[in-house]
Amino acid sequence: MSKPKVLIIYTGGTIGMIRDEKKGTLKPFRLERVVKSIPSILELGIEIHAIELEEIIDSSNITLKVWIELAGIIEKYYKKFDGFVILHGSDTMAYSASALSFLLENLGKPVIFTGSQLPIGLPRTDARENLITALSIAAMRNENGQSLIPEVCIYFEDQLYRGNRTYKFNSENFDAFVSRNYPILAEAGVRIRIFEERLLTQSNEDFIVHTAMNPNVAVLKLFPGITLKSFPKLFLDSGIQAVILETYGSGNGPTCDNFLSAVEEMIYNDIIIINITQCQEGKVEMGKYETSEKLLKLGVIGGADLTFESAITKAMFVLGLTDNLNERRQMLKKPLRGEMTL
């Protein structure tokens, strides 16, 4: 087979940072310096090309516009490359990976997000290994010449995760990410071991790139003593169309009248409510306890084991896809890109 081709898309983030000598803060520098810092990538046997966003950003400044821009870049170069590696800041990487997973429908090639906890120019940086292995995985093909991993992933510290199952849990260690409710897709040691049975099935449908996301999503996290009386009016006046409700345990909330009446008022006014758990592991099981059974009867959608990042971006994607309330509800109830297990 011909040499695999991988496109690096540089957005910014710690991996490409240098220290501003005057301010003492970290700021991004250009892509060519990232690549020059790791000359060994030229020995991978991969034809590597690289582009960068017109405006290099810290990942704290990520927006829906950037997600759509990234999807557009992948659409433009989709037929020319076997895989894509997106260099991205770790703080919002899980949001971006989740968003791209929904925007890229029937994806047949790897889109791998990676970055680092230390800038690439520092002696102890994790950037070199993360980038080299992400490129190696993105270039993998089967015996028929097809890309091996047909989904959006995150690679960090020897682990390949499904992007929309992952969240950042550690800002101090190199193993910054975790996927509590879905096993890793690959592990890098002396060899890179791919767990093919865990991958999404290759689609026979045409690759589709979506270009709309609706930001009218709000978050409501329960805590003991919360007063919800003002929320329905606040959300309605703000044009909110979906609310991510972070409940206790397996999806439980208060059974008092003021809480349930607020939920009922929002649903009556066509605001979709998606119930996800505040727990880092496990899932919502609507109706398991009386405290969630009432939410189910009111029309709250169970989010199963969605991560917070995936719930937010899925809601934005679905709201941008259709204005039909019933269609929105049906799509939010089921897995679209392997993001939840019912």
Walkthrough of the structure:
By secondary structure, the chain is an alpha/beta fold. The protein folds into two domains: 5-209, L-asparaginase, N-terminal domain (Rossmann fold, 3-Layer(aba) Sandwich), CATH 3.40.50.1170; 217-333, Rossmann fold, CATH 3.40.50.40. Helices cover 27% and strands 20% of the residues. The chain has nine helices and 18 strands. The strands form five sheets. The chain has an eight-stranded mixed sheet with strand order 4-1-5-7-8-9-12-13, sandwiched between helices. The protein has a four-stranded parallel sheet with strand order 15-16-17-18, sandwiched between helices. Helix 2 crosses helix 3, helix 3 (93-103) packs parallel to helix 8 and helix 5 runs parallel beside helix 6.
Please name the defining characteristics of this protein.
4-stranded parallel β-sheet; Rossmann fold; 9 helices; alpha/beta; 8-stranded mixed β-sheet; 2 domains; single chain; 342 residues; globular; 20% strand
Layout of strands and helices, then pairs:
Layout: E1 5-10, E2 17-19, E3 26-28, H1 31-36, E4 47-52, H2 64-77, E5 83-87, H3 93-103, E6 104-105, E7 111-114, H4 127-138, E8 152-156, E9 159-162, E10 167-168, E11 177-178, E12 186-188, E13 192-194, E14 208-209, E15 217-221, H5 231-237, E16 242-247, H6 257-268, E17 272-277, H7 290-298, E18 301-302, H8 308-321, H9 325-333
Parallel strand pairs: 1-4, 1-5, 5-7, 7-8, 15-16, 16-17, 17-18
Antiparallel strand pairs: 2-3, 6-14, 8-9, 9-12, 10-11, 12-13
CATH superfamily of the largest domain: L-asparaginase, N-terminal domain
Instruction: Provide the spatial order of strands within the biggest beta sheet.
Output: 4-1-5-7-8-9-12-13
Helix count, per DSSP? 9
DSSP, total strands: 18
> What integer is the average pLDDT?
91
End-to-end distance? 40 Å
CATH fold node name of the largest domain: Rossmann fold
What is the percent of helical residues? 25-40%
Number of domain modules:
2
Written as H for each helix and E for each strand, in order along the chain, the element string is EEEHEHEHEEHEEEEEEEEHEHEHEHH
